[in-house]
Design goal:
- The structure is a single chain.
- With 417 residues, the protein is an alpha+beta fold.
- It has a single domain (14-415), classed as Cytochrome p450, CATH 1.10.630.
- The chain is 48% helix and 11% strand.
- The strands form three sheets. It has a five-stranded mixed sheet, with helices on both faces.
- A hairpin with a 2-residue loop joins strand 1 and strand 2 (44-49).
- The protein is globular, with a radius of gyration of 21 Å.
- The termini are far apart.
- Bound molecules: protoporphyrin IX containing FE.
Length: 417
């Protein structure tokens, strides 16, 4: 039986996604007054859903699987082919444990120390420059941090290229045409480089410490006791490196927030009631990064009178849930204090996915992201003085991923005494 849920009758909405970007699902949910609707994208039937209840359903492993959900073009740029993001069941659980084993409090502390050191090392260089573009600089900082933390050797002469390649892979996720092609080449270059690293570790020419990602990926055994093939180990090691570099997006939005809400600066300095935690959470909620997530229906089921047929692609509206007025008071205002007594669930604040880390696909690097952001903002507030010259700080809600147009230019940089 077909459901009474709204159907967007357009022949195919792929162009609408490209034209409406982050608000594609939200716009239709508002128009249809419904948390769920059917449409067609890239020639296939798709169900789109928003809201906390929808997120709970989306993360039910009995109902959804990831196999076959991520388009090949996203795997050839952002994820890498056949990595953890596309796995299900026992194999996914086993692989996910590998990622989560790297996220211990001790390792997060090391990461935070490395991040602080790299910021510190950059000031001297910046003081001698007329101006810097923060996003580009932070990508390089974080590329150094990511490689050092993960046990991957990185020559000073290759920092720019590697940082740029990781950034380009992320920049390609919502792209067609040249941006997609650049992302694909960047991934091919990075995979070749990291395959060589894995080979060197396995032939004992390189000895990363045992608690690093490079060691873990090179020697990880699947649930049947077999090493990953070199390509797979490289893809998973890049699944640690690339997203650390991607935190540059949130740091750039954070700098924008500090510029547009100068009162946050004082509050960060005082850090009453752990204000920095609230600030970081609000950056991740308020500013757009990931738009929606995809999964395929595993078995036929019915929810909210809608029949979900096995194999159907379902999209969950991450951006919309983070701006849902039923969950967030005045969602389109930047207000870190909303997190002061926040008692969130696993499904209402989903900038990096929802649900349980170990059972589902929620981002393995959420703690890493929060840690790196906190250390970076603390540094930006306490150790650097700078000015923000005239520039175009607007960001598109259509281009995915988005960023302030100028990528945040800073000048007159000085070490704070
Ligand atoms: C998965 C976002 C940083 C590693 C994800 C997912 C999202 C996401 C939306 C998918 C959730 C799902 O499919 O349900 C982000 C954002 C980041 C970030 C916005 C900030 C820049 C990181 C970092 C790491 C990381 C720093 C590692 C150090 C992963 C891995 C997965 C993942 C391995 C796959 C998990 C799985 O499929 O089980 N991330 N992430 N991410 N993220 Fe992140």
């Amino acid at each position: 039986m077909n459901s009474p849920i709204p159907v967007d009758e357009s022949l195919d909405n792929t162009i609408a996604v490209l034209c409406e970007g982050y608000r594609f699902i939200q716009n239709r949910c508002q128009r249809f007054q419904s948390d769920i609707f059917r449409t067609r994208l890239l020639g296939q039937k798709v169900i789109c859903m928003s809201g906390e209840e929808a997120a709970k359903v989306f993360y039910d492993n009995e109902r959804f699987q990831r196999k076959g959900a991520a388009p090949k073009r996203v795997q050839k740029t952002l994820f890498g082919e056949n990595g953890v993001q596309t796995m299900d069941g026992a194999a996914h659980k086993h692989r996910k444990l590998l990622f989560m084993s790297l996220m211990t409090p001790e390792r997060l502390k090391v990461l935070s120390d490395l991040t602080r050191e790299q910021w510190q090392a950059s000031i001297g260089r910046w003081e001698r420059k007329e101006k810097i573009v923060l996003f580009d600089e932070v990508q390089e900082i974080l590329c150094r941090v990511a490689c050092q933390w993960a046990g991957v050797p990185l020559l000073e002469s290759e920092v720019k290229q590697r940082a740029n390649d990781f950034g380009t892979m992320v920049d390609a996720f919502g792209a067609i045409g040249p941006r997609y092609w650049s992302g694909k080449s960047a991934r091919q270059r990075a995979e070749k480089w990291i395959r060589e690293i894995i080979d060197q570790i396995r032939s004992f020419k390189l000895h990363p410490p045992e608690d690093t990602a490079a060691y873990a990926m090179a020697w990880h055994q699947n649930q049947y006791g077999k090493l990953l093939d070199t390509q797979m180990a490289a893809v998973e090691l890049i699944n640690i490196l690339r997203p650390i570099v991607a935190i540059a997006t949130y740091i750039t939005f954070g700098a924008l927030a500090l510029h547009e809400h100068p009162e946050c600066r004082e509050k960060l300095l005082a850090n009453k009631d752990n204000y920095i935690q609230m600030f970081v959470q609000e950056i991740r909620r308020f500013y757009p990064f990931g738009p929606f997530l995809g999964a395929r229906v595993r078995h036929d089921f019915t929810w909210k009178q809608c029949h979900f047929k096995k194999g159907t692609l379902v999209l969950l509206d991450m951006y919309g849930i983070n701006h849902d007025p039923r969950l967030w008071e005045k969602p389109n205002e930047f207000r870190p204090e909303r997190f002061s007594n926040w008692e969130g669930s696993l499904f209402d604040f989903v900038p990096q996915g929802g649900g349980d880390y170990y059972k589902g696909h929620r981002c393995a690097g959420e703690w890493v992201t929060v840690e790196v952001m906190k250390t970076s903002f603390d540094f930006l507030i306490k150790h650097i003085e700078y000015e923000v010259p005239d520039q175009d700080l607007r960001f598109s809600m259509v281009r995915m991923p988005t960023l302030p147009k100028s990528r945040f230019v800073m000048d007159k940089i000085r070490r704070r005494s």
